[in-house]
Amino acid sequence: MPSIVITVNHPAGLHARPAAEFVKTAIKFPCEITVRNLTTDKPAVNAKSILSVLTLSVNQGHQIEITAECDSADEALQALSDLIASNFGE
User: Fold this and answer.
1) How many whole angstroms separate alpha carbon 20 and alpha carbon 69?
2) Which of 27, 37, 52, 58 is the most exposed place for a label (fewest CB within 10 A)?
3) For residue 4, what are the β-bridge partners?
4) Of the listed 10, 15, 36, 62, which one is catalytic?
């Protein structure tokens, strides 16, 4: 199962609008996608659920691991990585 580790640099972390953008991007792919906060060692949650993503309490500077399982897993991970690297389009 492919996965990536990335640092969230957005000042709000993965809260509110950034979390919504993250979920909106994850939903585009027919994959099972999970995300977990490595910094606080929180368990993986469904990346397509806004409430689940918010429970991770990802703040600026936290590392997250995103895992995807499907035929387009690499594409999904790249899209999510690009989104985070672009600071959620800001």
Assistant:
1) 21
2) 27
3) 66
4) 15
